[in-house]
Design goal:
6-stranded mixed sheet, alpha/beta, 8 helices, Uracil-DNA Glycosylase, subunit E, globular
Length: 183
């Protein structure tokens, strides 16, 4: 794939899996196209599908608050998801759906050239780190994806449901801040 315009056109016209049939909008991602940090979630929810923007609901507000606490804002990072269309009823993307979108995600990574990836949730972990990645065991640890330092942490929507996950994710964000400041 070529540059941003070509990538966005391909995502917008994508029909590689069944998710395209129910979408209102594709949700390719947004933020600084030259960001040091790229955040990757699972897939768009209902509000994201309506707006075409990632992480705009309650989980997005939490994510923005956590970013602010480590000295960043949404415009300084690039935010996207593994899948670019909303799975029905916000279910976990199926393997075929994720595999259809991974070339788009890899192209986004190639275009942004981030120094760090923050993988938000188990789905992002499984598809970028491998099928054995486990959120409870692996969060807060550093891995590599295509030569880029990657950390797995809890998805903001999970943090909203379980305060313990928010506390653990906060520790992960502090470790991320330290790595960003020392690299």
């Amino acid at each position: 794939m070529g540059g941003w315009a070509e990538l966005l056109d391909r995502i917008d016209g994508c029909r590689l899996c069944g998710l395209c049939g129910e979408r209102q909008n594709t949700v390719p991602g947004e933020g600084d196209p030259n960001a040091r940090l790229m955040l990757i979630g699972e897939g768009p929810g209902a509000e994201e599908d309506r707006s075409g923007r990632p992480f705009v609901g309650a989980s997005g507000q939490l994510l923005e608050a956590m970013l602010r606490e480590i000295g960043l804002n949404r415009r300084q990072v690039y935010i996207c998801n593994v899948v670019k269309c909303r799975p029905p009823n916000n279910r976990t993307p199926q393997e075929q759906e994720a595999m259809a979108c991974l070339p788009y995600l890899d192209t986004q990574i190639d275009l942004v050239k981030p120094e760090f990836l923050l993988l938000l949730g188990g789905t992002a972990g499984r598809y970028l780190l491998g099928p054995d990645a486990r959120i409870r065991r692996d969060h807060g640890q550093w891995f590599e994806y295509r030569g880029i330092k990657a950390m797995l942490t809890y998805h903001p929507s999970a943090m909203l449901r379980d305060e313990r996950q928010k506390i653990e994710a906060w520790r992960d964000f502090l470790a991320l801040k330290e790595r960003l400041n020392n690299f």
